[in-house]
Structures are given as C-alpha cells and as structure tokens.
Amino acid sequence: MINVIGLGPGNTDYITKLGEKLIKNSDVLIGGKRNLESITDFKGEKIELASNLKEIVEYINNNKNKQISVIASGDPFIYGIGRYLSKNIEAKDLNVVSGISSLQYIFSKVHVDMNDLYITSSHGKTPDFDYVLSHKKICMVTDKIIGPKQICKEILERDLNRTVIVGENLSYDNEKITIGSPEDILQIDNFDMCVVVVLEDY
Ligand SMILES: C[S@@+](CC[C@H](N)C(=O)[O-])C[C@H]1O[C@@H](n2cnc3c(N)ncnc32)[C@H](O)[C@@H]1O
User: Fold this and answer.
1) Which DSSP helix (H) or strand (E) runs through 21?
2) Domain 103-199, what architecture?
3) Do residues 29 and 44 make contact, with C-beta atoms less than 8 angstroms apart?
C-alpha cells in the first residue's frame, strides 16, 4: 500500500495524527524538498520528488514490498500530487490521507467561510481571468510568474470592486497576511510563497 499524505500548510503541528503515524512506520518517504526537510526525525530512506514523476511511479510500482509514503503540502488533491498518482497507480494500492490545505488555513485565519468558493491556480498557466473574476469568492494558489500583483492588475483592468487577501508562508514563523484593495496590494514590492483570496464582499 502506498500512502499519499497531506502535511498541511507547512508547520508540522498541522499534520494529522494518522499522517504522522503512517510516516513513522514507512520505509521510504518521497516528497518535495521543503516537505522532506520538515520531517526531521525520520530514520528511513528519503527520495526527493521534483520533475521525476515518471521515475517515482516506476519506483513505487517496483517496490511494492516496501512501505512507501508520498508526502505532499496541504491537501494532495488540491493542486497536488494526488491527481497524478491516482491516474498512475492502481486504486487498490493507494491510501490517501487528506491534509489541511493552505486554502483552508487562510480562510480560517481571516474568518471567512469557504461556501461557494471557486478554487484555481496560476501554476504553469495563464488563467482565463474573465472567467476566474466572474466569481464572487476566489482562492488561487500562485506561482512566481502570476501572483498577487498580476491578479490585482487584472481586477483593476475590469474595474471590479474587490478585497484581496494575500497569505504568505502560512503557518510558518514568518507568516504574513495582507488584506487590502488591489491598489494597496500593488504598492507592495515582493511576495513570498502565497495564496491569494479575492472577495466581492468582505
Ligand atoms: C503545488 S501547490 C500545492 C497546494 C497544496 N496542495 C495545498 O493544498 O495547499 C503550491 C502552492 O500552494 C500555495 N501554498 C502552499 N503552502 C503554502 C503556505 N504555507 N503558504 C502560502 N502558500 C502556500 C502556494 O501558492 C504554492 O505555490
């Protein structure tokens, strides 16, 4: 059985007890650099996941005798590894343990419900902003190319009245949550790893 374990937003306090137990009992941990580094007391083998997805799946399928856990940030099925693994590993071999997504985390922090939320991502693609911004409540995971500033420019180009919330380094010591108008956000020079919430009513 292969475990795919959501670690939560980053601070290890947010890992579920089940996730923690499964990690502890694993022979091999597979994950991105940041995620592997966060599991400090692991005694088994660690394999870094980068753009080697095909090789990783081959490794998993060839090592069914080992207890393998793939660790993922947030929830594996919210813009994570879950989709790829579920398409490439037999369902009977896959045990997915959900984690607290960075999206859930930011909504808790700003006390806004997630009802009717439109979830999307700018990772490796240019979003269709006409469609994205037609929603009243949006949360976007972002990459270095299309982040808070680009999103704010798109809002202003459409003359929309929106509040923007940027959550950087969520759950870490250097967490920063900024709430403002698109104009306010455009004044800020740089953003670290972040999610962006856009609200019609706040
Ligand atoms: C590949 S996606 C993974 C999302 C993850 N599966 C989740 O549920 O949070 C990576 C993006 O998630 C967001 N993200 C993940 N962890 C974060 C954190 N601790 N603080 C801010 N943004 C985070 C960032 O937009 C980052 O670029």
Assistant:
1) helix 17-24
2) 2-Layer Sandwich (3.30)
3) yes
Overall average pLDDT of the 101-123 stretch: 97
- Which residue's CA is the closest to the ligand 1 atom numbered 4? 79
φ, ψ for residue 10 (rounded to 5)? 155, -50
Backbone angles phi, psi at 47, to 5 degrees: -120, 125
- 19-30 pLDDT, tens digit per residue, is 999 999 999 999
Pocket test for ligand 1, best of 117, 120, 193 (most atoms within 8 A of CB): 193
Give the model's pLDDT for residue 13. Answer: 96
- pLDDT class of 104 with cuts at 50, 70, 90: very high
pLDDT more than 90, % of the chain: 95
The confidence band for 124, taking pLDDT boundaries of 50, 70 and 90, is: confident
Which of the listed residues 102, 123, 165 should we mutate to test ligand 1's pocket, taking the one with most ligand atoms within 8 A of CB? 102
As a whole number of angstroms, the distance between CA 178 and CA 84 comes to: 33
Q: Which CATH architecture has domain 2-100?
A: 3-Layer(aba) Sandwich (3.40)
Ligand 1 atom closest to Cα of 72? 6
For the chain, which residues make up each domain, given as ranges?
2-100, 103-199
